[in-house]
Amino acid sequence: MVKIRNIELGEFPLILAPMEDVSDPPFRALCKKHGADLMFTEFISSEGLIRDAAKSVQKLDIFEYERPIGIQIFGAEIESMRMAAEIIEKANPDIIDINYGCPVKKVACKGAGAGILQDIPKMVRMTEEIVKSTKLPVTVKTRLGWDDETKYIVETAERLQDVGIEAISIHGRTRKQMYKGDADWTLIGDVKNNQRMRIPVFGNGDIDTPEKAVEYRARYGVDGIMIGRASIGYPWVFNEIKHFMATGEHLSAPNVKDRVEAARQHLMMSIEWKGKNLGIAEMKRHYTNYFKGIAHFKEFRTKLVSSFDLDEILSTLDYIENHQEEFIFV
Questions:
Q1: 38-45 and 69-74 as β-strands: parallel, antiparallel, unpaired?
Q2: What is the CATH number of domain 3-247?
Q3: Phi/psi of residue 58, each to 5°?
Q4: For residue 237, which phi and psi values (nearest 5 degrees)?
Q5: Virtual torsion, Cα 203, 206, 208, 211, nearest 10 deg
Q6: Contact present, 316 and 304 (Cβ < 8 Å)
Q7: CATH number of 256-326
Q8: pLDDT value of position 175
C-alpha cells in the first residue's frame, strides 16, 4: 500500500498531473470517475493568493468527492510561498504540493517553477519553510534539472526528503527540454532505488498506453505514475491502465456515445463552475481530444469550437450521439 502520511493511495496509484488550464474541477471530476487515485489542482500563484487575486482564489475550490486532492502552488519568494501555504491549509486539501517543474518562460525565468532548479539551496530552504508552516503533508513535483549539465535530481530528492516532504513526483525531462524529446526515466529510477529514500517516488512523462505503464513500473520500480497530457480529452486512460495491469487485457475503448457523454458532462460542469461564456470558451480546447481519431469529423469539430451558443453546441453533440454509426474511428 502506497501512503502519503496516513493517506492510502492503493498498491500502485495513478495520479492526475497538475496542468494549467486543464486540471480544473470539471476535468478532475471526469478523471476521478474514470479511476484517478490522487489528483492535483492547477498550479496557483503564491503572489496571487496572498494578494487575494480572484483567479488564484477560485483555484482553491475543491470538493469532497475529489479526495484525496492536493493543491499546488508556485512562486519565487520564500516568504510568499510560506504565507500561501497557510492560506491553502484553510481550504482543507489533503496535500500541499510545490511546483518546481513548470518550464514556461513567464514562470521559470522569474525563478519560480523549474526556474528554482538553478538554485538548489534556495529550493531546499523554501521547501523547509513550507513544511514548517503547515500541518498538512507537503509533496513536490519537479524535473531532472535545469539542463543536461545540471541533472542533480538524485541528490536533490534526498535533500528535499530530509527537510520533510512526504512524496516526490519527477518529470523525466529538464527545463531546457520543455516537452520535447523523450522523457528519460533512468534518473527517476535512480531516485527510487537510492537506499536513503523512504518516501514514495512517482514518475511522470510520456505514459500514454497501458503497455508503457506496465513496462515502466517494472523497469524503474516507481511507486506510482503521474499522467498529464495523455488524460486530456481521454480521462478513461486511468481505468484502462488499471485494467491492463490487473488482467493483461485491454478494456474496450470508449465509443462515440461515451465520448459525447463525457464532453457534455465536462461542458455543463465547466459552465456551472466558470459561468456560461468562459465555460463554453474554455471547453473548446477539449473537443479535439474527445473526438480524436474519428474520420471525417472536421465539420462537427468546427461547429463545436466556433459556436458560443449553448443550444447549438448541445444540438451538435446530440446529433453526433444519435448518428454514431456514421462516425468511424481510423
A1: parallel
A2: 3.20.20.70
A3: -60, -30
A4: -55, -35
A5: -70
A6: yes
A7: 1.10.1200
A8: 92
d(CA 67, CA 82): 24
Q: Are 69 and 40 in contact (CB under 8 A)?
A: yes
Whether pTM > 0.90 for this model: the answer is yes
Residue segments in the chain with a per-residue pLDDT below the cut of 70: none
Q: In this predicted structure, what is the pLDDT of residue 109?
A: 77
Question: What is the end-to-end Cα distance of the chain in Å, rounded?
Answer: 40
Residue 264 near residue 272, CB atoms below 8 Å:
no
Identify each DSSP E strand in 185-275 by its residue range. 201-204, 224-227
DSSP 239: H
Distance CA 113, CA 19 (A): 13
CA distance 145 to 3: 26
Q: How far apart are the C-alpha atoms of 68 and 37, rounded to whole Å?
A: 8
Place of cell 468562459: 278
What is the set of active-site residues? 102
How far CA 271 is from CA of 26, 143, 265, 279, in Å, comes to: 9, 34, 10, 4
Which candidate, 308, 307, 288, places its Cα nearest to that of 298?
A: 288
**Kind of pairing between the strands at 3-4 and 7-8:** antiparallel
Looking at residue 114, its pLDDT comes to: 87
Instruction: Note whether 165 and 138 are within 8 A (CB).
Output: yes
Domain boundaries, the chain: 3-247, 256-326
- Rounded CA-CA distance 111/288 in Å is 34
d(CA 145, CA 20): 21
Block residue for cell numbers 503497455: 211
